[in-house]
Fold this protein.
Amino acid sequence: MKRPELGDQVYTREDGEEVGAVREVHDKDLVVYFENLGDVTITADQVRAVHTGKVILDEAKLPARIRDGIAHAHDREEPGV
């Protein structure tokens, strides 16, 4: 698997909406910034795939707190802005 890079966008589905961005990359985990959650450590087993500029998480392996935060990541956005 390709290694995530700083600034990669984070998704829960290949065809889904961006939910975060990679802030730090370590040997066995990475730190992702999620709107409404802040910085969260994601372990290697919670990553399903990495493509150029894109990290796909395995949502089933994420704790409920993170899944809930992702579900509401764009709540504060104003339509059309």
